[in-house]
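Interim report, section 4.2 (structural modelling).
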Amino acid sequence: MNPNPSDESPTSSETRERFVERAMEEFESALIGYAATILHDIDLARDVAQDTFLRLCEQEPAKVEKQLKAWLFTVCRNRAFDVLRKQRRVEPIDEVRWKKVAGDEMQPDETLRQRERLEKAAALLDRLTENQREVIVLKFQQGLSYREISEVTGLSTGNIGFLIHTGLKRMRDLLPADI
Amino acid sequence: MKLHPEDPRLTSYLLGELSPQDAELVATAIQDDPALAAAIAELEEARDSLAGSLDLGEPRLDREQRDRILAAARNAEPKASPFSFANLKPYLAPVAAAAAIALVAAITWRSLHGPDAAIGASEPDATEAAESPGGEAGSVPLPALAERADFRKPQESPEMAIPVIGRQSGFVPIAKTIREDRKLPDPSKVRISSLLNSYQLRPEGPTVVARFPVSAWHPDNRSPVVTTHAATAATEVLPCPWKPSSVLVVISLRGNPSVDCEIEARFVPHTESVRRYRLLENRIPSGTATPSASHLLRAGESSLIALEVEASTASGSIGAIEWSANGRAATAVPVELDPSREPSNDARFAALLCAFGLWTANDRDAQVDAALVAALAREVAAEDLPTERTDFLILVDQAINL
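Predicted structure of the assembly:
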């Protein structure tokens, strides 16, 4: 009997590792950015992205490869909202997010810049409704198509078109003052 | 095409989300109307500014996180591998062998005494095992088979009878356990069919009305044969929330408001477009009497069930509901995949009920977790949700937080 399960099929194991590595290279930043706009916390967003890739490790590559992008964003979204829901039970979310966004310690330059960007984006997105915020982020930050957004959020493409249109109009009114 | 400057299609055009034909029409409209051209220019400016302000740079995982993920990928075992004696720890082999002998004995007993013969507490598993292809002793897939046996292949099960269930109150005891006892319900006590039929849900897909003749003459009908509405059958197909490669088929049977009706219905999958399918229902524990299938649909009641279908096609027909009302054959209701069609609110709520039932039952085929149930609950949440559905969402939240 083989004590190491991974030795049973070295080829498939190697393929899985390479598959996950490729997925990380392509989607790591996008998933962290997406989760950060939900959680307003770059460190928590990294944890969520890590969880998403750990879930990917459990999947058969052949089964998820065709819709990998939508799969990753869906898992990331669900995990981020799960974390957000747990946070809400502990303390009001606005206190959490702004405390995390502002940070209470000196940060290295790059981290500080990321936090500033996130703070600015969060302030802008807070002017939108929850649904508008979600589709706007997936469209303009992540570049997903209406159909991909539909797969991730479960909203209809017609509804997504309307939400993006109204969200963009709202941004059009706000941006000159914010940027 | 005449467009208003506030028309959402302008944004869709700007973002390249229109079909080529629609995009051409919108482009022409913009060319002909300076107000539209101005609106597009404003939207374009907002799009560019927004994209810039949402740019968070290129955040990366920590080195430890990356290493952890790659190690997990290296060590990941293939999921749901068929049971094999070769995979067993040595001290479990005798136990498995004994179980295999018991199973073979049970199958032999059934073959000798017919399908209705009692085999004690192991009857459901033995039944399921008997329907599956056998194998040599070294590769008899015992546990995996027991977990997966409620899936059927169209080649082996070309049709499946649809039970008529009627109004249920499955929500009440579950709510009591969660709210008062502060624990999740016993998986054996949760019935997906009971949950589904605790609510008035109507699929919005293809619908067929069956009529039957009545003896009474009606002034509006000069035909010698007077008919009245007997029952309605409807289907709706939506993506399966827990398995991207599958769909949920929600099937509803609704009766006449004032007259009982006998319904016989069955799902007939297309062998070329369906890999396997199953009725979504929690497994009845061993030793429990299986409820007999009823055909009686009481006046004013409806019956709802859901199927999980693994289709091999992305669109088109995957089967039909063949049915009869009071002994008269009705037109079959098609079951069709249409990726462009958005699920109705009722279908989404049905999907949430199914996911909740599978989660509480720890269904291994679905592998539904609390995060998925919470996500589905968020999808159906709306301000105008009926009170009883809002109450269920609150219950889901309470269950997840236990």
